[in-house]
Write a structure and sequence with these properties.
single chain; about 65% helix; mainly alpha; about 280 residues; 13 helices
Amino acid sequence: MNTIDELVREHLPLVGYNVNEMLHRVPPSVSRDELASAGALALVLAARAYDPSTNVPFARYASLRIKGALIDELRSMDWASRGARRRGRELEAAVEQLRGVLGRTPTREETAHAMGVDVAAVDAARADAERRVLSLDLPDSTVADTVRDESAGPEDALLAAERVHWLRAAVAELPERLRTVVVGLYLEDRSVAEVAADLGVTQSRVSQLRTEALALMRDGLNAAFEPGLVPAAERPQGVAARRRQGYFAAVAARAALAPAVHVDGRLDTVPTQREPLGQHADLVG
């Protein structure tokens, strides 16, 4: 078994790779060194937290942790909180509305009255807005590069798409009966009665299978993203525990096989029959 230091040294290129990918999607003012430091720390933490018994390849697990750390670092570089941006938009809207009614720029008092706040709140919102404008005028930076959109950025979309990609693998690797329930109820919008009729079971049994499938998928995704959230098996060497580990490994293998995920987060059609990849035994009798 590799030690923590060996894992870090062996997979250090993952940090540079992920930093380079991220730098293509952010303004040039973003510091490469700060991203690299955040990525390296995430790699070390991933090596410390890694549990080989999950059968998830360390490179895959570490990449997810590094991407998450880089996104968090980018968010920390944005001084303006969501509240500050919201107050700035409200101030701008109130001023524009009053300007149209009054035919002139409103006073601080008039703006405060229209917004239902005191003058101090208006002054604070204006100070935030002015501070943000100054940040747009930094050397070697342009407004187009640094204005932040409230919609999901490329980094957020990339992480979301990665999770959707793993979700698709988790569905595809479910045992047949569980997969039939999940696909029927959630992807084909069928009723519990229809799925029960297809399986030849009662509706209450379909509900039980749905609960079992969702719990298994949750643990399968957590095994890749947050291994610490996967509950410990009562009998680690038992048949049920081995089957669960087999499912986790099959999900990781399927997710690793596919090329890059869609950046827009689209979910490909999940097959109603498992493609010939998963080799683990069915978990449902």
